Structure prediction request, 222 residues.
Amino acid sequence: MRRLPALLAVLAVAAFAPLAAQATPGDNGTRIAVSASRKYQALTNFQAQFRQELTDKYIEQRDSKGAMYQEGKSHFAMRWSDPPKESICLDGSFVWMYFPSTSPGTVKRFPQQSDPTYGTNLVGTFLDNPADRYRITYVKTEMIDGHYTDAVMMEPINGKMQFQRATVWLDRDLGMPRKIEIQEKRDAGRVLYLSNILLNRTIPPDMFACSKLPGGTKILDQ
Prediction:
């Protein structure tokens, strides 16, 4: 019986030794984000339904919804069904922003940058080389629409980003976001929910073109 305390001590060391080798929460967050990024980078394309909630004391708060499409790194589109006909399209050369509910008769056109830009490509903003662009911390595991996700907080390393931090819920199987919650620099934020995610399916090329605008629509180059 005198050997029992020593035996228990050995078992205790053996039981807790693996915990010492586990990654820290920050390391786990980075590992999860990098794994999701690899899956994202390997895609030919994706499409999904989205729902967006905005919080901004300076503007009327309004939820919106629509569909999102991406082909490679240079073609991306968000097309709203509510409010109808609104869109952001990246055609490989330009970013087109068409919001007739707030800016009727005009469409804004920007030269497209090589890196994903916040406000025009939300998915690429968080999944293109995340370890180089963010301080990443693991938050929690959560079930969303029947899918296991891991939530990670991303805080921009570069102060030029237009938001303070974001929490991204990444699907364990697909690597794609199921939810993105963003705290912007002023007193505003947004939450984006993705559903009906489809990977590597055929997407019509005209989804990325800002076409079928009403006659007389003015192009405002920015």
Remarks:
- The radius of gyration is 22 Å.
- The longest strand covers residues 45-56.
